[in-house]
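Q: Give me the 3D complex with magnesium ion.
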Amino acid sequence: MDFRVGIGYDIHRLEEGRKLIIGGVHIPFEKGWIAHSDGDIFFHALTDALLGAVGYGDIGELFPDTDKNWENADSSIFLKESIKIVREHGYNIQNIDAVIIMEKPKLKIYKEKIIKNTAEILNIEESKIFLKGKTNEKIGEIGKGNAGASQVVVLLSKN
Ligand code: MG
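A: Here is the predicted complex, encoded as structure tokens.
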């Protein structure tokens, strides 16, 4: 079997009165992402992991934040495009393992919804996606609640 692994990382600043979207799910919270698009750190990291696994550039090259098309864009657009590219290269997703690092809010009650939504967009089983919510132990800007980050690893196989 032919395997490919991809890694993705993203971080955005948080500000009061903005929308907090993670994995396409709107999470009610006093702060939200400062970003050109909707700022979905999980979808951005996942998009980069998928593109990286097939060696097809990165999210910034494909969807530049200087492009007005992507202003306030729903990040599922980037994800849909990246899975299309992965399948065009003949690969399928074996599994996705992800970390979301934020001091607040607790993501526990939203995890199931995020996984379900992501699985639907990618057209894969929910059991192939694993998500971990972590705090930054009050360290740095993430620890102060001024930012949130996501790390994603993806394994692809060619049949
Ligand atoms: Mg981003």
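A quick observation: Helices lie at 41-53, 59-62, 76-88, 111-122, 140-143.
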